[in-house]
Amino acid sequence: MTGHLLEFRNVVKRFGGVTALDDFSMTLDQSEILGLIGPNGSGKTTSFNVLTGIYGPTEGQVFFEGQEITGADPRAVYEAGIVRTFQRSRLCLSLSIYDNIMIGDTSRLVRGLWSNLISRRRLEEQLDMTRRQARDLVATFSGHLADRMDQPVGALPMIERRRIEICRALISGPRLLLLDEPSAGMTHDETHQLMDDILDVRARGEGLSIIIVEHEMGVIERITDRCIVLSYGRKIAEGTYAEVAADSEVQNAYLGAD
Ligand SMILES: Nc1ncnc2c1ncn2[C@@H]1O[C@H](COP(=O)(O)OP(=O)(O)OP(=O)(O)O)[C@@H](O)[C@H]1O
């Protein structure tokens, strides 16, 4: 048993001869924003992939809300309340804002063909409700976007696309949001707006916890409560951003290299 929202216990992940995560242990509590930082190839994305069931760990255990989820498949992890965004945008550019967000809420909508045919009215009611929820969610980020729910996302600037990706992750009402390099490809001003958005998401999220992987240290410094630094799959430091930034091993492995 674990009293934390999330716990990695001695997790190892090997890909052939490469040890991407090396005896990695960490915890996360409700409402925390945790920064996961480290050089390229240090295991940050692998930790997300192990957590979300893309890969089973080679050794070790993962617990979420006191239940062991080691090796659970991605759908079970999503249904447990863990959602993510990706380093590269996974939006369908030709689809509308609304359709892209709906893809994030399949748990309520995907039922059997027969069930949908027989209770068509119920399906339509669910679609209406989800449409309202999607619009309300988008409106909390941008009223202007909420008025364009039927427009394709391909024409939107990067900051708006990132907002839609975050809305797609949030539409299912998760407990834990994993953000993988959300500032990638954005301008300085857009990055600042995004940080405000993420802090707003936590403020509104009724206990929502966030883990953010990010190379932009201004983002990490501003929005995280705590940071973990990885190097070659090993945790080399943990603490507030100020604490880890002052750590000589972190400076040698990562920050000093910039
Ligand atoms: N599917 C895979 N097959 C083989 N090796 C992999 C696989 N996924 C990750 N790795 C290796 O595991 C190590 C950790 O990679 P990972 O992507 O987790 O690092 P990262 O810290 O997220 O890097 P970046 O900051 O560049 O995104 C790297 O050496 C990488 O090449």
TrEMBL record:
GO cellular component assignments: plasma membrane
InterPro entries: AAA+_ATPase, ABC_AA/LPS_Transport, ABC_transporter-like_ATP-bd, BCA_ABC_TP_C, P-loop_NTPase
Keyword Phosphoprotein: no
Gene3D superfamilies the record matches: P-loop containing nucleotide triphosphate hydrolases
Pfam families documented for this protein: ABC_tran (PF00005), BCA_ABC_TP_C (PF12399)
Keywords (A to Z) from UniProt: ATP-binding, Nucleotide-binding, Transport
GO BP: D-alanine transmembrane transport; L-alanine transport; L-isoleucine import across plasma membrane; L-valine import across plasma membrane
Recorded GO MF terms: ATP binding; ATP hydrolysis activity; L-isoleucine transmembrane transporter activity; L-phenylalanine transmembrane transporter activity; L-valine transmembrane transporter activity
Protein name: ABC transporter domain-containing protein
